[in-house]
TrEMBL record:
The active site is at residue 188. Coiled coil: none annotated. HAMAP family: RNA_methyltr_E (MF_01547). The lineage of its organism: Eukaryota, Viridiplantae, Streptophyta, Embryophyta, Tracheophyta. SUPFAM superfamilies: S-adenosyl-L-methionine-dependent methyltransferases. This is rRNA methyltransferase 2, mitochondrial. InterPro entries: RNA_methyltr_RlmE, RNA_MeTrfase_FtsJ_dom, rRNA-MeTfrase_E, SAM-dependent_MTases_sf. It comes from Arachis duranensis. Pfam families: FtsJ. The keyword S-adenosyl-L-methionine applies.
Length: 242
């Protein structure tokens, strides 16, 4: 009795309750973290689309004990309370629209205003059930996460499709992203041809990129995660100390 795909969500839901996570989605990041070690002791983590807060909990746990340092900043359209379990004073949240938040303001919120060493995007559109529409919205959110991480100019220099107007519109905001060189990026997407395009754009910017569908993903869901490890600076930063 039980078992099979239908039982999987119940298992993760019950486990989340048992372990004090605010949502079963915690186990997606737990698995990704186990396999890829995105977050290390002392990391500065940015969590885009952080509601309801389960990833804040896993990110904080991944930093190790408080004396190891590190920080987690969660951003969401909704006001998100920092969960009392598994989080400590290193976790903060702000309410803002990631789609319009300028990268220089985001950088100003990072430790010593030096950017973040890990960016997690679990942003997802309100699913309408129209496959193509949902996929397009998902790609828009994913592209925004990539833009914030590496800067629109970096992403577009790789893509080289020459949409000058689009780049020009945001060039003041697009000189640099907020992901530190050597940092890691995780983006949730809905499977589509356009999602593969984001993978192609990000590939040359990172030492390694791969896809993962975590075990805690609901069987009916088309979501998949793009994992980008070790951000490479495109332009040599000779004038920057260490």
């Amino acid at each position: 009795m039980g078992g099979g795909a239908a039982g999987a969500p119940d298992f993760f839901y019950k486990e989340a309750q048992r372990l004090g996570y605010v949502a079963r989605s915690a186990f997606k990041l737990v698995q990704i973290q186990k396999q890829h070690k995105l977050i290390k002791a002392g990391s500065s983590v940015l969590d885009l689309g952080c509601a309801p807060g389960a990833w804040l909990q896993v990110a904080c746990q991944s930093l190790g004990p408080p004396n190891h340092g590190g920080s987690v900043l969660g951003i969401d359209l909704k006001k998100v309370k920092v969960p009392p379990l598994h989080c400590d004073s290193r976790v903060k949240t702000i309410s803002a629209d990631v789609m319009t938040l300028p990268s220089h303001q985001l950088r100003a919120l990072s430790p010593q205003q030096k950017g973040f060493s890990v960016i997690l995007s679990d942003m997802c559109p309100l699913v309408s059930g129209i496959t193509t529409k949902d996929a397009a919205l998902s790609v828009e959110l994913g592209m925004r996460a990539l833009d914030l991480a590496v800067g629109r100019r970096a992403a577009f220099s790789v893509y080289a499709d020459g949409d000058d107007n689009q780049e020009g519109e945001q060039s003041h905001d697009a000189e640099t992203g907020v992901l530190q060189v050597g940092g890691n990026l995780l983006i949730k997407l809905l499977e589509s041809e356009d999602a593969k395009e984001i993978s192609q754009i990000s590939k040359p910017l990172f030492r390694k990129s791969s896809w993962l569908r975590p075990k805690a993903t609901r069987p009916s869901s088309r979501e998949i995660y793009l994992i980008c490890l070790v951000y490479k600076s495109i332009v040599p930063h000779k004038d920057i100390d260490n």
